[in-house]
Amino acid sequence: xxxxxxxxxxxxxxxxxxxxxxxxxxxxxxxxxxxxxxxxxxxxxxxxxxxxxxxxxxxxxxxxxxxxxxxxxxxxxxxxxxxxxxxxxxxxxxxxxxxxxxxxxxxxxxxxxxxxxxxxxxxxxxxxxxxxxxxxxxxxxxxxxxxxxxxxxxxxxxxxxxxxxxxxxxxxxxxxxxxxxxxxxxxxxxxxxxxxxxxxxxxxxxxxxxxxxxxxxxxxxxxxxxxxxxxxxxxxxxxxxxxxxxxxxxxxxxxxx
Length: 257
What we know:
By secondary structure, the protein is mainly alpha-helical. The protein has helices spanning about 35-40, 65-90, 105-130, 135-155, 165-170, 180-190, 230-255; strands spanning about 95, 105. It is about 45% helix and about 0% strand.
């Protein structure tokens, strides 16, 4: 027998320590260690053994089957809808308070603010109209209102024999009436009252004055001397020149036709 080329192997010594650390049994494993794959496997119902944990979305943490996930997701959506509905029912209307902190009804407060706003606008408008009117305009407006009230109390139709209509036509003086000058002088002597119940004011009887843009006659005390700046003359001269130039331009544009 030929000898083996390899050196002789030593037998195991029972008293030599093992270089690897001692392994624990599964029963002795600590509670904080990771669960094994067998422990992580889903149970018969589809959920893990540790099914108490929930995610932020409300779903159960861990492995779930598709059917369980759909069923749970549907329940979560229904719960969210019910919660939103109950929250919407609990929401109250805006509470309005006065300066002292007392509650005010929203509709009443809106109507009150609107009435105050409209009242201020009406008052401001009335004040502006009042400031823009003179004494004569106010008296005329008052007389007009009284006339409208009288008309409202009268019958609907006015006939030819109505005394007010007949008196109105009789008092009217026409420009082409040959007796117009005589009637005017007669009324002045008699002191015929005007619209406001006062004697009619005298008017200017001197030479015919220069025309003005507004057709305002001079006062009855005017001595016939023009003390203006000549602005009305310039305005009338400008209007006359404008009309002449316009006619000349038209004739020049149609001269070749």
